[in-house]
Q: What sequence folds into this?
């Protein structure tokens, strides 16, 4: 059985573009997301770089005084 390279199965370009956006940020990175002020450490992915993060944020019901730990 012949093996198939990963690049033959998946289009890696979207992921590569996202990683490139992540790599050019300066850390500690400050941003606003969903009304929250975030400080992003180096090595932690920033939620403002994807379209999925706002969708996930809408599924969470938290108040402005709540603290949230994202272990994704």
A:
């Amino acid at each position: 059985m012949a093996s198939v390279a990963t690049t033959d199965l998946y289009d890696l370009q979207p992921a590569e573009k996202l990683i490139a956006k992540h790599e050019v940020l300066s850390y500690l990175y400050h941003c606003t997301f969903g009304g929250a002020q975030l400080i992003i450490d180096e090595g932690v992915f920033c939620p403002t770089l994807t379209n999925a993060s706002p969708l996930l944020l809408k599924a969470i019901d938290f108040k402005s005084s709540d603290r949230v730990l994202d272990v994704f």
Remarks:
- Helices lie at 6-9, 13-23, 52-58.
- The longest helix spans residues 13-23.
- The mean pLDDT is 82.
